[in-house]
Structure of Tektin:
Amino acid sequence: MSALLAKPSLRHSVSEWNSNNQQLSATAEHERYVSNVIRQEGRSLRNETNCKTTCDDTDTSRRLSDRAWNVARWKETLETCAQKVDEEMDALTLCKEQTEQALAATSVPLEVSSECLTLRDSRRGFELAHDPVDVQLKKEVELIERVQQVLQQRIEKAFEHLCVLQENRHKLTGDIQNKMDALDIDMSCLSLTIKSPQISLKTNPIRIPPGSSTPQEWLQFSQYNVACAQEAMQVSQQMREDMSLTRAQLQNELDSRRRATEFALRKRNHHEEQARNELEWQIKNTEDEIAEMESDIHGLDADLQAKTASLKLAHTRLENRTNRPGMDLCRDEVQYGLVNEVHQLEATIMALKQKLSEAQHSLQKMKLHHSRMLQDLSRKQEALSLEQRSMTTRTRLTSPSCSDKTPVLLVPLTNSSGRSNLQLLA
């Protein structure tokens, strides 16, 4: 048999085989060492990152909790301030309504005063005098118009400030709503865990949203809203105090002026009654004097007729005695007596005629003055009736219905320090 053919291949020596085995062992040991190091580092990294992640999550949760508590505290502060603003708005609205009622209540006094002036302008003759009642009534009208103007200005200012309070209330409401939304979001974030189904990766979550503010700006914004609301409330409180004080002062002025006017009206009415009674007494005495004068005139006229008859008798006797004949036509004592009688009768008749003329003239003057006094009495009675109508008209100011509309109350006045030791008539 022929010799075996050898396969062509690379043969290694035993030393190379040993070297290869040693290299494989060394490499295995190195790789195991590297793997061990990597495993240890991985475990360390896992422990470290787990701790870091847990700490970060805990810290984030604490910060979220602190932030939520801070937002909740400011929300309560804003809600408390908003509630106070609502209360102040209600108080200012009530004060404004009271002022409007006080303004409406001045319409009756103005109407009454104007009606009294119109009534008293109907007086005639010398009764249409510019007396103290006219002065007081005109002052009363001027005062009521000034009161209406002042109250209207107070009402307008109160309305304007109510708009300011409403604006501050809207700002507080917006801030409260924002804080409620932010609180809901933070509480929702605080409730999330790694097992929550709502979590996911987002695109660029670390971006800064437009319109973001700093914590200082956030705090200053709420502080500014609260400060503005508190300032508006202080102004409103002062305004309410001023309105209450103004109403009380104006009401006192109106009451004082009303009492002065009514006193002047009563005094004038008393003077009118005195003048009427005096004039009635004068008229009665004048009528009595006219009656006596007419009686005396009749007597004078009768005496004049009698004296005329006596004069006719004396004239006839004298004329008849001129027919005596001869020496019997003597100027005897009878002649002298008749002549003296004629002179006496003529003087008497002339004196009677003069006295009758004077009496008739005096009677005419008395009748004319009597007519004037009657006219003046009519005017005085008419004026007195107008005065009494004016007094009756002014009873509307103190009638129960008017008193119900404008009651006299004690209004406590609270100053800026909170003390309320002042009380004035409302």
